[in-house]
Amino acid sequence: MGSSERAPPRPVEVALLASVFVVAACGLVYELAAGALASYVLGDSVLQFSTVIGTYLFAMGIGSWLSRFFERQLPAHFLRIELLVALIGGLLPATLFLANAFVPDSFRFLLYGLVLVVGTLVGLEIPLVMRILKRNVALKDLVSQVLTFDYLGALAVSIAFPLWLVPQLGLVRTGLLFGLMNAAVALWAWWLFRHELPHRLAHLAAAVLTLGALTTGWFGAQQLTTLAEDRFYQDRIVLAESSDWQRIVLTHGRAGHRLYLNGNLQFAERDEYRYHEALVHPAMAAFAQGGGTPRRVAVLGGGDGMAVREVLRYPGVESVALVELDPHMTRLFSQNPALRALNADALHSPQLSIVNTDAFKWLEQDGDSFDVIVVDFPDPTNFSIGKLYTNAFFASLQRRLSASGFAVMQTTSPLVARQSFWTVVTTMESVGLRTAPYHAHVPSFGEWGFVIASRRPYTPPAQLPPGLRFLTPETLRLLFDFPADMARVPAEVNRLSNQVLVHTYEQEWGRALP
């Protein structure tokens, strides 16, 4: 063997490089979990992820700088830091869930405090590993190897976190799993350096206790999540599941069932008929009053099937396309007996076809036009939903609307979020659509807004389907009258490039919260 060839890596070196991979993966999981929880609770996912990541990187810088003060007993320091990261980082999602349920005012402070602590500890890890490895590895090889394993760990987690970890385990168990991995690294470090460690039995006991605490948390994760959600939702939780896109919670109380997506109320059984009748019938009946029949209808969003239920009141409807991003929603509302009763088994109608895809992309495709398009998206609480309220979306909507067709969209509260409501109206008009804004009182939501858009003038219908509980031809006309405190105000067009609506919505609803 030539003298220039490098000797095979020693077991200690291999073990430490593998530890770099694990600690990098764990560090990124804690960062992503904090960002995801911040976006769930505080809204505006871009802002929350940006501030969490910025705080985390700043804290890592502090940790790297502090590593210079660790001069002796480096393996012992590394082991202690791993145990602290395991415990604090692993319990971070659970702690934040409980804080939001029991002490919501402290959530933001606790979030950034934990991010700072975990980031600082993670910033200490890699410099200490590099200094331990320096005993046996040349500097040029040391830097390249450590950074390679660091980046590979980050890559693995960045792919697994949204595609497998959160959908399969949920945020609480994901945090605990990676806390256990950090603790396992600490235990492995104890074994590798057991002859160098002072008080090695104390270190072993600390590692075992940390593993025990995290394991207990793992088996109690469901009870912990239930405790937090029971406190948050007030009514008894009858179903709580996580899909690839959202947390779905169904509660039941004196007012019947309530559906929440990511903590936001979507409907309440006692008055959902007001919302869905107001959403569907002003457009459907207006199309029918000219002697025509809305034969082809699309419902965008509305995976609960309530809007489809109202559409199917019109016997002339030949086909309904339900475009819902989350297959978990359509599966749930087509299989659960209580939910099937709420939507009158609409998702089993032979006229219905379910398309589980992004509505924005679906509209952009070439396809058939529709007589009525009902748009029932959540409010624009973040940029991924906000894109569905942009002029680009409405331009695609217009292309899929028949020449005499009507589109209708729910558009938040014109009383609480007045600027946001009229921003949607202005944005629709910017692509050449005529608009007919209106509002209805839904007790669970308050005063709620809707907008009808079309190429032709809108005239309120003189007739409605039989059996409605809320709307009559006489009361429907009153919905288009806006009192002074909800009257139109100047508004900017919501574009993909600015997403002004998301910022406006957050400001207005933020002021409305107690």
From TrEMBL:
What are the UniProt keywords, alphabetically? Cell membrane, Membrane, Polyamine biosynthesis, Spermidine biosynthesis, Transferase, Transmembrane, Transmembrane helix
Annotated active site: D376 (proton acceptor)
Q: What are the binding positions for spermidine in this chain?
A: H276, D304
Q: Which reaction does it catalyse?
A: S-adenosyl 3-(methylsulfanyl)propylamine + putrescine = S-methyl-5'-thioadenosine + spermidine + H(+)
InterPro entries listed in its UniProt record = PABS, PABS_CS, SAM-dependent_MTases_sf, Spermi_synthase
PABS domain location is 216-455
* Residue numbers binding S-methyl-5'-thioadenosine: Q246, E324, D358, A359
Q: Report whether Transferase shows up as a keyword of the record.
A: yes
Q: Which residues cross the membrane?
A: 12-33, 45-66, 78-103, 109-130, 142-165, 171-193, 200-221
Keyword Transferase, does the record have it? yes
Top-rank taxon: Bacteria
A single Pfam family, by name?
Answer: Spermine_synth
Task: Give the molecular function GO annotations.
Answer: spermidine synthase activity
EC no. given is 2.5.1.16
SUPFAM superfamilies, A to Z: S-adenosyl-L-methionine-dependent methyltransferases
Cellular compartment(s): Cell membrane
Pathway per the UniProt entry? Amine and polyamine biosynthesis; spermidine biosynthesis; spermidine from putrescine: step 1/1
Topology in the lipid bilayer is annotated as: Multi-pass membrane protein
Record function comment: Catalyzes the irreversible transfer of a propylamine group from the amino donor S-adenosylmethioninamine (decarboxy-AdoMet) to putrescine (1,4-diaminobutane) to yield spermidine.
Q: Which family does it belong to?
A: Belongs to the spermidine/spermine synthase family.
Subunit text: Homodimer or homotetramer.
Q: Which HAMAP family match?
A: Spermidine_synth (MF_00198)
Name of protein: Polyamine aminopropyltransferase
Encoding gene (name):
speE
